[in-house]
From TrEMBL:
Family statement drawn from the similarity comment of this UniProt entry: Belongs to the HrcA family.
Heat-inducible transcription repressor HrcA C-terminal domain segment(s): 108-343
Protein source organism: Dendronalium phyllosphericum CENA369
Annotated GO MF terms: DNA binding
Descriptive protein name: Heat-inducible transcription repressor HrcA
Function (record text): Negative regulator of class I heat shock genes (grpE-dnaK-dnaJ and groELS operons). Prevents heat-shock induction of these operons.
Length: 358
């Protein structure tokens, strides 16, 4: 459920999150009065913080303590209340340009260098995947109706491996259910369209497929097919032997959020021994913004499906060779991190690597 906040509630939530990020201490109304020009009394701030707590955006770790942002509070902070730092983005770009020398270094050394710069400037664990060179090439694709409202997408790759995904058809614009024979004909037309545009190309290139070329009556198939083939694509990518460059672990583990030995051990085990689980989260389904740049994915706390990082934030974006995503850049830290800086760092690094690989 989306939470609608007033301007005052937004401002106080913003100040609470900022203060907690800076201090790692529960935030009280007195601290906000002293350090932020909110223009209201301490009593008003307490009342607003109480409302934010009831909305699930703040919580009290102890009865007598101040408030701490919840995952939902951080989500609103990231989505609505901040702008990534352009100054830091330029600093990252300059650092990568000045310190990395493509003509002299091996690819692995370059990405290790980029990961170190990323960790230093973000204060987080940096994660950069090696470029994926062995992605599946489409040989044939077919959409088949198996029952009313249900279809299966079948993909055959150049290695003659078959992948399939069961899907619900998007609802028709009209109230009555379309004739199954009509659906069969439509699915054959869409299959022919996809085969003619994608045969012999990487499935990753579906992200740049121009769906406007599909006749208007078939447009309803576009978005849900794009998402479904993107999921199949992730299954068919063969990760490079050295999957993820990891830097900055020691510094991040000094943060108070990692005071429990068991938590530290499980996180390090994930980073060192179970990168195959982490890899699909970093190499997220590729999307491109209207500007032509890769989008940034921010997974906060419990939004992460892996237990060792459910108290962390993972920020990632893909880098590309031309229009095709070939690798990812990410940072991992406690949910109490400097989001403006971390998002800017990841965006700048992904854009730089995309330029370099293109």
């Amino acid at each position: 459920m989306e939470v609608q906040l007033t301007n005052r509630q937004q401002h106080i939530l913003w100040a609470t999150v900022r203060h907690y990020i800076a201090t790692a201490e529960p935030v009280g109304s007195k601290a906000l009065v002293e350090e932020y020009n909110l223009g209201v009394s301490s009593a008003t701030i307490r009342n607003v913080m109480g409302v934010l707590e009831k909305s699930g955006l703040l919580y009290q770790p102890h009865t007598s303590a101040g408030r701490v942002p919840s995952d939902s509070g951080y989500r609103i902070y990231v989505d609505q209340l901040i702008t990534p730092s352009e100054v830091l983005a330029k600093e990252v770009e300059l650092a990568l340009q000045n310190r990395l020398h493509w003509e002299d270094w091996s690819l692995e050394s370059l990405l290790q260098g980029a990961a170190q710069i990323l960790a230093t400037l973000s204060g987080c664990i940096s994660l950069i995947t090696m470029p994926q060179t062995t992605t599946a090439i489409l040989r044939h694709l077919q959409l088949v109706q198996i029952e009313a409202g249900r279809i299966v997408l079948i993909v055959v790759t150049d290695s003659y491996e078959t992948h399939s995904k069961l899907m619900d058809l998007p609802p028709p614009q009209e109230e009555k259910q379309p004739d199954p024979e009509v659906i069969d004909r439509e699915l054959q037309i869409v299959s022919n369209f996809l085969n003619s545009h994608l045969r012999g190309r990487s499935l990753l290139e579906l992200a740049s497929l121009d769906w406007s070329q599909l006749d208007r009556e078939f447009q309803r198939y576009g978005e849900f097919l794009k998402n479904s083939v993107a999921e199949l694509t992730r299954r068919t990518i063969v990760p490079a032997a050295t999957q993820i460059m990891v830097r900055g672990v020691a510094e991040v583990l000094r943060q108070p959020e990692f005071s429990q030995l068991q938590q530290v051990q499980t996180l390090i085990h994930l980073l060192e021994e179970e990168q195959d689980q982490l890899w699909p989260l970093i190499f997220d389904e590729p999307e491109i913004e209207e500007t032509g740049k890769s989008r940034v994915t921010v997974r906060i706390g419990a939004e992460n499906p892996l237990e060792p990082i459910r108290t962390c934030t993972l920020i990632s974006s893909t880098y590309r060779r031309g229009s095709v995503p070939v690798g990812s850049v990410g940072v991992l830290g406690p949910t109490r991190l400097d989001y403006e800086s971390a998002i800017a760092v990841v965006t700048a690094a992904a854009d730089y690597l995309s330029e370099a690989f293109s």
